[in-house]
Specification:
disulfide bond; signal-anchor; Transferase(Phosphotransferase), domain 1; binds adenosine-5'-triphosphate; alpha+beta; five-stranded antiparallel β-sheet; binds 2-acetamido-2-deoxy-beta-D-glucopyranose; three-stranded antiparallel β-sheet
Length: about 425
Amino acid sequence: MGSPWRGYVLWRLGLRTCRRRIALLALFWIGTWMFFSGVVFVHRTMLSDLCSDKKSKQILQGVCEEYGRGVLAGDLCEELCVSRGVEYRRCLYYENGKKVMEADWRGVPIVLKSKLENFSSYEALGLLDYQEGASPSPWDVVLYATMEIRSSLGLEPGGAGEALPGPFPRASSRAELASLWSLLQQEEYAFFRTLQDLSRHVVKVLGSCGHFYAVEYLVAGRAWSRNLFSQEALLGLVGEGQGRGGGSDPSDGGSGRNVVFRIALSFLDMVRHFESDFTHRLHLCDIKPENFGVRGDLTVVAIDVDMAFFEPKMQNVLEQTCTSDEDCNFFDCISKCDMKENKCSSKRVNSNLQVICDKIFRHWFAPLLPVSGAELPLQVELRHAVQECAEMDGGNYVRGRTVHLHLQSLLSQLLQDASGQTTGQTTGQSR
Ligand SMILES: Nc1ncnc2c1ncn2[C@@H]1O[C@H](COP(=O)(O)OP(=O)(O)OP(=O)(O)O)[C@@H](O)[C@H]1O
Ligand SMILES: *[C@@H]1O[C@H](CO)[C@@H](O)[C@H](O)[C@H]1NC(C)=O
């Protein structure tokens, strides 16, 4: 008899507890959200305090004061401090004293970098104290610098006939020598400078003032986006870079897939170049989008080379004591543990190509939707080739070449088809 009533009451009760549960859940959710946004906010304000315009301008002002006092020098100082040809724009990065800023150099965006914010934080040039009064000849300094760089890159000093570091700023005054010395203490500068005229896949150094050096501004890769490089930013750069290479056609400009294929082809070119165009193979041990940038003509450029090693240095880095293979992983460069000697093999067992396939290409060429019916056969083939590349035996360079060529041909065909589609609707599409 009472059953409909009981049912009703139970139903109301159920509804109420359900409501309460929802309310609790909502409260919990809001609480969590507030907590995390609080954390993010505090983190941001702390970071922005360091990477603020005020702090950046202070640092540059300090550089200019020392330039005025004749402590430091450089080919950019005049424009940075006197004629204002170089103007500060914004802070890009600041951590542990490492300072990266964007500036404008007569209308061209550049990046100013230094590993340490203060000139005085760099080691003073001891050579000068020895020869108080009589300054060393520029030749001595260049020789000294050359040896310093070669050893920092892990290349034997001397080795006649090998590529010497590019043209260094001619140092003659005390301020110039001290500045050159502060720059040479920045491995990254030494690296960029050495490969300046030898590689288009390394960022160009445009000049320096004291311990700050200027490099070309690039569109840096983004970790959090499927579009590794911002399309809008690239379009801007491609517009700028018209005519100086790549044969970029304004009609297909930076449009969609086209850009991705061309950047991927440039990654492949970089891999081949680092593998075979120098005296020693160059290993990249920290491969992630943020560490690469793209120029207006869509060439891929290494911007963070803290973890780039030539073969001799790579071997030193890998040769560690070990008890298992895990001990022999140095970021993206791995080798095997020799259990008898408890020492990691000095030979890397994976390769730049393999890691690029795994960490970059795989995300690019994954199907947009789980249903892969919409893919063209060539796209499916590319996806399989990328997968195969990521899983291959990286120590086998012959196999690597084959995989490399296969990827290159697939990407070229896809690029051709994509270009055909955008310029004339009637062509292509036969695959
Ligand atoms: N040439 C450039 N063009 C545009 N942005 C740049 C350039 N160089 C550096 N950046 C930006 O500045 C950031 C930091 O620069 P950089 O990569 O040299 O520091 P970092 O070496 O990554 O620091 P850490 O070694 O602590 O990771 C980069 O993530 C990038 O966004
Ligand atoms: C750099 O110099 C400024 C001003 O002289 C000083 O306040 C700051 O502590 C110095 N920073 C470092 C890391 O030495």
